[in-house]
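Hi R.,

As promised on Friday, here is the backbone we talked about, encoded as structure tokens. Could you run it through your design pipeline when you get a chance and send me back a sequence?
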């Protein structure tokens, strides 16, 4: 049975959006047709027709070897155009650039949307990663990655509890169960920043620091990613302090 009603206003738009959202959430590994049907609740025939249309319009691409579907170039171009108007990117542009130049590593800006995050900007340093772990526009559940964990770990206890108790299936898709998530949250609170050490991508380390609103609640995060040999203690502490120093004293408005 499909999750969506059989009729109603804007049904086709909602179905297309559901398919694109599902594929975007799995931007790294792509999705098979069966994965799309499971994620959206759409029937196989309906999902196939929608994907065929998205392929034809270049909103979705299909890998010729694996057959998996990925977000297409047209959507990526739209996202790039939209980012130019996204206020947070412009506000933090000098911050990201300064962190990138001083660290020499890849820097990400991430913003919370519901119980997920969206990666909205990336700066590549003088020590570029051989394989970039996350693309701009990618979505991940809170707690999956250094920046998403930085946003989650410094919420109030009730909000953390609510998020930990939900969306477990989505997090398990990245190999992070509840026990590991709670361990990462506790580590972040102890260190004062989030630290991922190969949990998502083996050999990759990332440091995440939350960006707070006027009430002191995290709504975004800045993270730095590098290979394990380059981002080992005590440099993880140094990078966290660099991010905090560049954020300090700035009046940052959400969105």
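Update: got your reply. Pasting your designed sequence below so it's all in one thread:
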């Amino acid at each position: 049975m499909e999750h969506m009603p059989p009729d109603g206003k804007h049904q086709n738009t909602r179905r297309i959006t559901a398919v694109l959202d599902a594929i975007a959430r799995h931007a790294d590994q792509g999705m098979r047709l069966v994965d799309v049907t499971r994620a959206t609740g759409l029937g196989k025939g309906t999902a196939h027709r929608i994907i065929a249309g998205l392929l034809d319009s270049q909103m979705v691409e299909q890998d010729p070897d694996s057959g998996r579907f990925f977000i297409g170039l047209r959507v990526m171009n739209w996202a790039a155009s939209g980012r130019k108007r996204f206020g947070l990117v412009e506000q933090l542009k000098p911050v990201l650039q300064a962190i990138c130049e001083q660290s020499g590593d890849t820097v990400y800006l991430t913003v919370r949307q519901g119980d997920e995050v969206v990666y909205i900007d990336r700066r590549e340093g003088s020590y570029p990663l051989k394989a970039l772990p996350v693309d701009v526009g990618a979505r991940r559940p809170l707690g999956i990655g250094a920046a998403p964990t930085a946003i989650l770990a410094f919420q109030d206890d009730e909000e953390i509890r609510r998020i930990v108790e939900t969306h477990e299936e989505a997090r398990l898709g990245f190999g992070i169960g509840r026990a590991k998530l709670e361990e990462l949250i506790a580590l972040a609170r102890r260190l004062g920043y989030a630290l991922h050490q190969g949990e998502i991508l083996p050999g990759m380390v990332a440091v995440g620091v939350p960006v707070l609103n006027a009430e002191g609640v995290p709504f975004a995060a800045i993270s730095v990613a590098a290979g394990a040999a380059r981002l080992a203690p005590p440099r993880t502490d140094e990078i966290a302090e660099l991010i905090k120093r560049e954020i300090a004293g700035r009046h940052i408005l959400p969105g």
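One thing I noticed while checking it: The two ends are 37 Å apart (CA to CA).

Thanks again,
M.
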